[in-house]
Amino acid sequence: MEQKGRFDNTALITRFKKWCYNCLNIVKSLENSNENRVIINQLIRSSTGSYMNYRSVNRAKSKADMIHKLKIVEEETDESIGWLEIIQDRSNLHTSDLQKEADELLRIVVSSIATLRRNT
Description:
This protein is mostly helical and 120 residues long. It has one domain (2-118): CATH 1.20.1440.60. It has helices at residues 10-27, 34-55, 63-90, 96-118; strands spanning 2-3, 6-7. It has a two-stranded antiparallel ribbon.
């Protein structure tokens, strides 16, 4: 998806943003305890990191830089899935929809990385 020589990832930025906001909303439902504070902080960090790093993809200086940025998104999104699993395992909150969306986003990112590597 090229537009005036730039990568147009607007639709996926919107998906990442919505997913990030949903992650932020789920942590509001957790009981305030020492253990949960760690989980809350980590999920906030990794989900916002996924979103913010994906936003930066269209500012990549080269294909190699784009791949590097996407690899960061891959790691942050995968980490978020892990924290969502922990939340679901430890509480009555169901995070499976958030996990599913994160998995779909992760698959798109991994596929994008593979495509960029093939075309380099």
